[in-house]
Design a protein that fits this description.
Blueprint lengths: L52 E15 L9 E21 L2 E22 L2 E13 L2 E13 L2 E11 L18 E11 L4 E12 L12 E12 L2 E12 L15 E11 L8 E13 L1 E14 L1
Antiparallel strand pairs: 1-2, 1-13, 2-3, 3-4, 3-5, 5-6, 6-7, 7-8, 8-9, 9-10, 10-11, 11-12, 12-13
Length: 310
């Protein structure tokens, strides 16, 4: 069951954890790449076609609270809404490498961001800022995709993603679609569909970040596991999806107090539709709520992804 692995890896800013001095969980508390991109069919790549596969993803993320290192509301006034619109292109070929089909791709995304932050101390407002914009985010290049189908109902692929600092960025602005640094992300995806139609899918990704030259800030290494469990009924698959995000290493910046690494868990319903004979595009839809959050914003996201091969 083909999907668009790696699609919109920078599709949405999923949190703004900390402009407050007490929190340091990646720069401005903002994860480098988006979570909730993969669910059903993560291990299967699109077919090898003359033109390739075109996909679009629309997501809306909202958060109203920042959690501290103990999982409590940090007491500041916070609001963020991010609408992401992205276009992905994947081209799978018939060329073989290590027994796998070789492919490549690219992703371009625009963000509409609306954010407000008020920091309180001693019962008084000591800082406030806001931003509203609609600008391009960083470009994601996927020069290497290797896809295997070693057994019936089993799909595996590995990818190398390179995120280039092409997005709009302003170090003095509350939020920016761009990160102003390079990121390299190795990715491994796998799916199993049983004869009875039960599907188990997972995606594992590590983000290795370069230093932001404008701020001399280097975010720590980030890890993400996305997953979905569901039942196939005809062309439909319905079940539960989500992701686990965790910062594996401390940030590095002048005068920074280290140790406040971010993490969160998200769960929610997921639905997909795929029927090649229908002539309709493949569709994925999910709604995830974040839980057990530390050192970042906690919110929810709704995302719709569509894709078609030509």
């Amino acid at each position: 069951m083909p999907s668009l692995p790696g699609m919109l890896t920078r599709a949405a800013v999923l949190s703004l954890a900390a402009l407050a001095a007490t929190t340091h969980a990646t720069e401005k508390g903002m994860p480098t790449t988006a979570a909730g991109v993969q669910d059903f069919g993560a291990g299967f790549m699109p077919p090898s076609t003359p033109i390739g596969t075109i996909g679009m993803r629309f997501s809306d993320y909202q958060a109203r609270v920042i959690k501290d290192s103990h999982g409590r509301d940090d007491g500041n006034d916070f609001n963020i809404n991010v609408l992401a619109i992205g276009l992905a292109y994947l081209r799978m070929t018939d060329q073989q490498l290590f027994g796998a089909r070789y492919g490549f791709g690219a992703v371009s995304v625009f963000f509409r961001m609306d954010a407000d932050l008020g920091i309180n101390a001693g019962g008084q407002r000591v800082f406030s800022d806001s931003a509203e914009l609609f600008r391009p985010a960083d470009l994601q290049l996927i020069p290497l995709i290797l896809a295997w189908e070693p057994a019936p109902g089993v799909g595996i692929n590995t990818q190398l993603s390179i995120q280039a600092p092409t997005g709009d960025y302003d170090k003095n602005r509350l939020v920016s679609p761009g990160t102003n640094h390079w990121t390299v992300s190795p990715i491994f995806n796998a799916s199993y569909i049983s004869p009875s139609g039960l599907e188990l899918s997972s995606s594992f990704q590590v983000d290795i970040n370069a230093r932001n030259s404008a701020t001399d800030y280097r975010s720590g290494v980030e890890y993400r596991h996305e997953f979905a469990v569901g039942q196939h009924v005809g062309p439909w698959t319905a079940g539960l999806g989500g992701y686990y995000y965790r910062q594996l290493s401390d940030d590095d910046a002048p005068g920074l107090t280290r140790g406040n690494r971010a993490r969160t868990l998200a769960l929610g319903p997921a639905l997909s539709y795929f029927d090649p004979a229908s002539g309709l595009p493949a569709i994925w839809l999910h709604a995830y709520k974040e839980f057990e959050t530390r050192n970042r914003a906690e919110g929810y996201t709704v995302a719709l992804k569509i894709g078609a091969s030509f």
